[in-house]
Amino acid sequence: MGRRKTQRKNSPTVDSDDDSSVSSSSTMRSDRMSVVGIEDFHFDKDTLLDQALDALYEKRGSTREKALASIVENLGNNLQYQFVEKKFATLLHQCLNCIKKGSSKEISLASHVIGLLALTVGEGDNAREILSESIPSISQALKSGSESSKISLLECLAIITFVGGNDIEEIERSLQLMWQVVIPKLGQNVVAVRQSAAIITAMVSSWSFVLTTMDGLKLNSKDWQESISFLSSLLDKDDRAVRIAAGEALALIFEIGILEKFSAETKGSTDGSTLEGSKPREWFIHIQGLKGKILNQVKNLSMEAGGKGSAKKDLNSQRNTFRDILEFFEYGYCPETSMKIGGDLLQTSTWTQLIQLNFVKHFLGGGFVKHMQENEFLHDVFGFTPKKKFPLDSEHRISTAEKRMFKSPNSIVNKARTQHLNKQRMLVEGRNIGHYAVNVGE
């Protein structure tokens, strides 16, 4: 899993949705929801979704799985505003029930539905309700379960926090839940389990995606020192996806200036100590040493030679990623990317934007283009306005209340984007003095 990137300087291609569809079979109520087959698309979409929602009450797990697959396809490939507006609470709580009692596959599908539900409602009270109601179930499910279900839960948590996170405490709670999947707080009845490369990649990618929304971080240098040191250790792992996810997370941390904030905190200390009691000079030296270590790791990965059996495509992806990271660390230049969506150009010019784009694109899969063309929440996130407005039929019309919800100037995403633009301007102003350069001798 994770964000598998295309080369930075080329326009990424849009993933195709190759999920197999489910055909309808019996006329019995327990099976009548099997309505996602291509041959059934002439039926009213609200009817299909209503049938799928009804089927979530069934005792048979396989029936609920088919219902969830139907809802994933419909919410992923269409903007189902009217259905979501009418059945929002019912759908959310049935999906949470599936997470509590379902199979691994059912948990994965229900998690994906909840994420799609959040992207459909956009910012507002409903998105905040999704986050607050889902946290207990997701938190519990993350403590056990299969690899695939944990990955889906992590990505769901990232999406619902990105859309519905209303304050720093809510966002930090989600970040901590993600982190504990890989590095749990050990205590009574808690045993550290070595997680797979796929789970580590999903955690780091989800964590980075949520971190892009942060404004006004609480400075706890001990926690951040541990996080950055852990990400640095991941750069030495064998799995390329893990290394790329960790590299991008570190680039984001440098972009939003966390280490610089700690340096300023240390220099401004009035009592001669940092938060952990160490002397300011020692802390400053430690930060510079950590920067130097990461810089050397990034240099090595940007030039790594392919080993026996190494996939050339994966190797090139790693080299391109770490060349971009190295250029950013040394000169402050962020990778610029562009992609066409229905003839309109979507561009990124910061690590924040790139991480957001790749995560959303991965989560939506084959429905990415449709959502980017019609989902005004995503227009707001990426500053993207299609030149040609695609007509919405009566089924997809957006209510006045929804428009206000989507376009709120006080949205966390609007604020985040303003913050990132301001930081980009600061980055340009600081290039001549190497403001973002990683240098052990600073």
Your description of this structure?
The protein has 442 residues and is mainly alpha-helical. It contains 18 helices and 2 strands. The two termini are 37 Å apart. Helix 4 packs parallel to helix 6 and helix 6 runs antiparallel to helix 7. The longest helix is centred in the middle third of the chain and has 23 residues. Among the domains are: 141 residues, Alpha Horseshoe (Leucine-rich Repeat Variant), CATH 1.25.10; 37 residues.
Write the topology of this structure.
Elements: H1 45-55, H2 61-77, H3 81-101, H4 104-121, H5 125-141, H6 147-164, H7 168-182, H8 197-211, H9 221-234, H10 240-255, H11 258-267, H12 280-302, H13 312-331, E1 337-341, E2 344-348, H14 351-364, H15 368-374, H16 376-382, H17 400-407, H18 412-430
Antiparallel strand pairs: 1-2
Helix pairs in contact: 1-2, 1-3, 2-4, 3-4, 3-5, 4-6, 5-6, 6-7, 6-8, 7-8, 8-10, 8-14, 9-10, 9-12, 10-13, 11-12, 12-13
Q: Number of DSSP strands?
A: 2
How is the CATH topology of the domain at 45-185 named? Leucine-rich Repeat Variant
Low-pLDDT stretches:
1-43, 270-277, 390-414, 431-442
- Structure classification: mainly alpha
Helix content: 55-70%
